[in-house]
Specification:
- It is built from 6 helices and 2 strands.
- By secondary structure, it is mainly alpha-helical.
- A hairpin with a 2-residue loop joins strand 1 and strand 2.
- The termini are far apart.
């Protein structure tokens, strides 16, 4: 009976020691305020009224009223920062856009399944991303030009076919014209 008390006290001491060491060696990021997050699920508890994102705007308005114009939420392991003020959003996204342009590092499983972040939707901002964007844009523009030319050609062929169809229909319904 006394063993479980001893083990629980030792476990709590070890956990608090590990937490203190973790906080010492890996200091927390200075993030905007936000509600406390639960481990593994983050702030998904704020969506407890419904598990759809239909009430997200109402919940964000309540959180902005409580914590200010910039709030931090965690959705599982991912961090999300919401800005409600237009001038702060402009300052963050336009004036300091290069600071926020990068993507978060991929998890190990995502690196294996996602081509090690070497595709356009997961590549970090830099020379590789610019090369991928340039190639994608060139291919899309080339495809767009091809489709425009194909559309013009198909319309021309369609016009010819419609004329032939009209002529054949006329000849079928008016057999006395053929002589």
């Amino acid at each position: 009976m006394e063993n479980w008390v001893f083990f629980s006290i030792v476990s709590l001491c070890i956990a608090s020691l590990l937490k203190a060491l973790n906080d010492f060696f890996f200091p927390k990021l200075k993030l905007p305020p936000g509600p406390a997050a639960f481990p593994l699920i983050g702030n998904l508890v704020w969506l407890r009224t419904s598990f759809s994102f239909s009430d997200l705007e109402t919940i964000l308005r309540q959180l902005h009223a409580k914590y200010g114009p910039i709030i931090t939420l965690r959705f599982g392991p991912r961090l999300a920062i919401f800005i409600s003020d237009n001038s702060l959003a402009y300052q963050a996204l336009v004036q300091n856009g290069a600071v926020f342009a990068d993507r978060p590092p991929a998890l190990s499983a995502t690196r294996v399944l996602g081509s090690n972040q070497k595709n356009i939707n997961s590549c970090p901002y830099g020379p590789t991303w610019r090369l991928l964007r340039r190639n994608l844009t060139a291919k899309i523009l080339l495809l767009d030009t091809f489709l425009n030319n194909l559309d013009h050609h198909v319309r021309a062929q369609n016009t010819v076919l419609m004329e032939k169809k009209t002529e054949i229909t006329y000849l079928i319904w008016n057999p006395w014209v053929c002589s």
